[in-house]
Design goal:
binds ligand C2E; binds magnesium ion; 21% strand; 8-stranded mixed beta barrel; 45% helix; alpha/beta; Bifunctional diguanylate cyclase/phosphodiesterase
Length: 289
């Protein structure tokens, strides 16, 4: 077991330190290679309007196809990349690729209203972060209204003054901001009001047990109501069945994501989805974008 903490890279270990340290080093070098060798790829999961059933956005989720070990899930390598101080390279690649892909789809005449990328705490806390985003948008000639950034509740709490400033810059640029995994941290919604955010994404742990755990149902209802009072959009994550969707409809939750509608899909498959969803087709003239 091995953990690298923060910027000063303090190692904690319980068994074979060398083995763990080597593991981390090899992961670090293979992650570097992964970026160079195009082993990273993006899958996209639709965000769906609860009332109409139409797609109102997509979320880019990184996938790593390791040369020897096969697919490695972001749940595994993102935390390690954060600990090894490598997350910035991944998040940069993801944002660039998501913007490039969205622009390409727009040129072909269709795209989702918006593409969301997940950004780690250390990334958004950089002083020049909003400039970095601006450059990526400019390089891809993508209007800022197509980009959404998801940051977890816990990550914005870590360094709230910095984050609020950066988020204000991003918001005034026209980027949409969402709080991911909402409900898992300890922030009150009234505290969160200081953050210039557009949407809350309710963590899937609450959504999953909405029909079995009465207290989770109450939490979800309360989040929906408070978000409404604060004029925030709400997205329920991890919807896997019709029962849960019915609950969300009854309680007027705006949007949802989950395997019930679609798992995250590779670009060619999500493209199919988007091209069928004529409602969200964009103007054929790429010069307009
Ligand atoms: P997240 O942003 O909260 O993404 C939701 C996760 O739930 C995704 O897992 C998605 O595949 C999964 N999911 C969606 N619907 C369902 C469902 O109905 N049931 C279940 N059981 N799961 C569902 P994934 O793709 O493995 O990503 C895990 C986490 O890794 C993400 O959580 C996000 O925090 C992080 N991540 C993914 N891509 C990136 C990235 O490019 N940068 C950073 N910094 N983090 C990323
Ligand atoms: Mg997310
Ligand atoms: Mg989430
Ligand atoms: Mg998550």
């Amino acid at each position: 077991y091995c953990k690298v903490r923060g910027r000063d890279h303090v190692l904690l270990y319980s068994d074979d330190m060398n083995q763990s340290y080597n593991h981390l080093l090899s992961l670090e070098s293979s992650l570097r290679k992964a970026i160079l060798n195009n082993e990273l790829t993006l899958h996209y999961q639709p965000k769906v309007d609860v009332r109409t059933g139409g797609i109102n956005g997509i979320e880019a989720l990184v996938r790593w196809n390791h040369a020897e070990n096969g697919w490695i899930s972001p749940g595994e390598f993102i935390p390690l990349a954060e600990e090894a101080g490598m997350i910035s390279q991944i998040d940069e690649w993801v944002m660039g690729e998501a913007c490039r892909q969205t622009k390409e789809w727009l040129k072909q005449g269709f795209a989702a209203e918006r593409v969301a990328v997940n950004v780690s705490a250390t990334e958004i806390q950089q002083e020049n972060y909003s400039n970095k985003v601006k450059k990526v948008l400019e390089q891809n000639k993508l209007p800022s209204s197509y980009l959404e950034i998801e940051v977890t509740e816990n990550s914005v709490m870590q360094n709230s003054t910095e984050c609020i400033r950066t988020m204000q810059e991003l918001k005034s640029m026209g980027v949409t901001l969402s709080i991911d995994d909402f409900g898992t941290g300890y922030s009150s919604l009234s505290y969160l009001r200081q953050f210039p955010i557009h949407n809350l994404k309710i963590d899937q742990t609450f959504i999953k047990s909405v029909k079995t755990g009465p207290s989770d149902a109450e939490i979800v209802k309360a989040i929906i109501q408070m978000a409404d009072a604060f004029k925030l959009g709400v997205v329920a994550e991890g919807v896997e069945c019709e029962n849960v969707l019915a609950f969300l409809r009854e309680n007027q939750c705006e949007s949802y994501q989950g395997y019930y509608f679609s798992k995250p899909l590779p670009p060619n498959e999500i493209k199919e989805f988007l091209s069928k969803s004529t409602k969200y087709r964009h103007n054929k003239n790429p010069n307009l974008h």
